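not sure who needs this but someone in the group chat was asking about Box C/D snoRNA protein 1 from Chrysolophus pictus so here u go. i didnt clean anything up, its just raw.
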Amino acid sequence: GGSGAGKGSEVRPGSAGPLPRAAAPLPGPAWQPLPQELLSTSFRCETCGEEEAKYRCPRCMKYSCSLLCVKKHKLALSCNGVRDKTAFVSVTEFTDLNLLSDCRFLEDVVIAADAAARDLSVHRPTTNKFINYLRNRARRHNINLKTLPIGFTKRRENSTIFNKKEQKFYWHLKLVFPHCHAEYTLKRVPEDKTLTDILKPYIDPVESDPVVCQRLKIYTMCPQSDVQILMKIENREQNSTRYNELDASRSLLENLKNKVIIEYPTLFVVLKKLKNDMVVLGQGKHIFISCYAILRYFS
């Protein structure tokens, strides 16, 4: 029912109506049509800057001309292309469509909560058994692995496993690049992989992906000796946040020993030359990090 605007069609800037869905299929959520007042205006693709735009991302409102540019934009900006249903809308801009969107969002929340309550796998005893097993294996390596209650985002995201046959961990890992406001999630990272090898696809000038390399240009342009890998020390008072500096030449497992991990490791890749707010334990020096990163990751 309804007009279906923004759901099954995309609108070309400067055209009078929607393009057929089969004309340029895109994976994931459908992209938004342009507002009526912009239909007569021509827009350039904000990724390649050459072709006329055909799509607009419902999350970051960037214009794209093709499936290739859509994928590049998502990777470069770490954008999932999904409209933020909880984004703030001022009273003066609030319309019937916003009200309808809020009602549907609340309905989805009720459905998701009901489904979770009915999901026996969430409440089965083996879940706790598996978690306890991971904790015990981590303890043997002098790692204090702590888990959050079911329902927390980090608990749901965590894909860490222990391979009994190989007798080693495969960690869920998050890399945060504060100076570029970028983060990347890695799944099943073997414990014996060095931090240098883990970072190569991101900041190595030769081996990194071209799109990622451009996104993290400030890192790839700096010598490797200027790159510092930090991990937040858990269980400290909020006003006394400190970080451990990790050894990039050593394995992930060796770096995690004698540390507290909540669900999975989060590594902050910073540059020594940009100093300000992050205090490294035992060094008495600070590493710059933006207020955006502080509010997002440490609040």
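also The radius of gyration is 23 Å. if thats useful
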